[in-house]
Amino acid sequence: MTLIDHLAELRTRLFIAIGAWLLAAGVMFGFRFELLDWLKQPLPAGLTLHTFHVMEPLTVSISISAFFGVVLAAPVIGGQLWGFVAPGLYPTERRWAVPFILLTALAFTLGVMFARYVALPFSLPIITGFLGEEATMLLSTASYIGTLLTFMGVFGLVFEMPVLAFLLAKLNLVHWSTLAKFRRHSIVGATILAALITPTVDPINLGLVALPLIVLYEISIWVMRAAQRSEAQADAAPLRPD
């Protein structure tokens, strides 16, 4: 295929992925009230959400629908990504198509669930309680939802790390030893990223975010090593006589 053909295919697959996302977002729009109640549950007792602008209910509804539309459409988006890179793989490697698509969707969903049920219930009471009873907090619905969706989106993307490592290994773009070489750097980077995601001085919250990042990095090394070792063994296997 020529460069023009690749760009045309990329455009088609982008249209399909975006179309699936918009359709899924439309479906999620019908469940925006249930999703909003679900997102409000990590709030500490006594805190409620308020709207301060005329357009805020609409923008919040669109934000919720768009985000969970990505979650719902993740298998289609993953399938289009795999379909774009699959022509560059060997036939034996293309059998990983279904696992890759399912793992992409599963990893993103697991990241969102981890943020919602593990990280946020611990982080929010500390973040909102810094001033104690010295100030009355009026939470903007748009600000709160935007913060939560960003938080969950970051975790969803971070949980894709092992899936991305598998893809890079199969494409021979990165060797597993390179990731292992930067293991110490990854610990520092995970700590910095955790500090940015949870801007608190609480070491429990910092560790709650940093530890999964470090574990996911180690899993990525293991996944990449296993994938490249199996490929090397297949290449080294003697050809069977006709």
Any descriptors?
single chain; 242 residues; mainly alpha; 2 domains; two-stranded parallel ribbon; flat
Q: Please, what is the average pLDDT?
A: 82
Q: Helical stretch count? A: 9
Q: How far is the first residue's CA from the last residue's CA?
A: 32 Å
Number of domains: 2
| Residues in helix, % | over 70%
What structural class do helix, strand and pairing data support? Answer: mainly alpha
- Gross morphology: flat
* Biggest pleated-sheet summary: 2 strands, parallel
| Order of the strands making up the biggest sheet | 1-2
What is the chain-wise order of helices and strands? Answer: HHEHHEHHHHH
Radius of gyration (CA) equals 21 Å
Number of DSSP E strands:
2
Describe what you observe in this structure.
- The chain contains nine helices and two strands.
- It is mainly α.
- The protein has a two-stranded parallel ribbon.
- Helix 8 (183-197) packs antiparallel against helix 9 (203-236).
- The longest helix has 34 residues, at 203-236.
Write the layout of secondary structure elements.
Elements: H1 3-29, H2 32-40, E1 49-50, H3 56-85, H4 97-128, E2 139-140, H5 141-158, H6 161-170, H7 176-181, H8 183-197, H9 203-236
Parallel strand pairs: 1-2
Helix pairs in contact: 1-3, 3-4, 3-5, 4-5, 6-9, 8-9
